[in-house]
Amino acid sequence: MSAPAARPGRAVVSGRLADLPVLLVAVVWGSSYLAAQGVTTTDTVLAVLVLRFAVALPVLVVAGRRGLRALSAVQLRGAALLGLVLAGIFLLETYGLVRTSATNAGLIISLTMVFTPLAESRVRRTRLPGSFLAAAGLSVAGVVLLTQGAGFTAPSGGDLLMLGAAVARTVHVLAMARMESVRGADALSLTTVQLGSAVVVFALLVAVPGTGASPWAAASAFDGGDWLGLVHLAVFCTLFAFFVQMWAVRRTSPSRVSLLLGTEPVWAAAVGIALAGDRPGWPGYVGAVLVLAGTAWGRSVADRERRAPVPPAQTTRTPRRQTPDTSGTPGR
Question: What is the mean pLDDT of residues 45-55?
Answer without folding.
Answer: 94
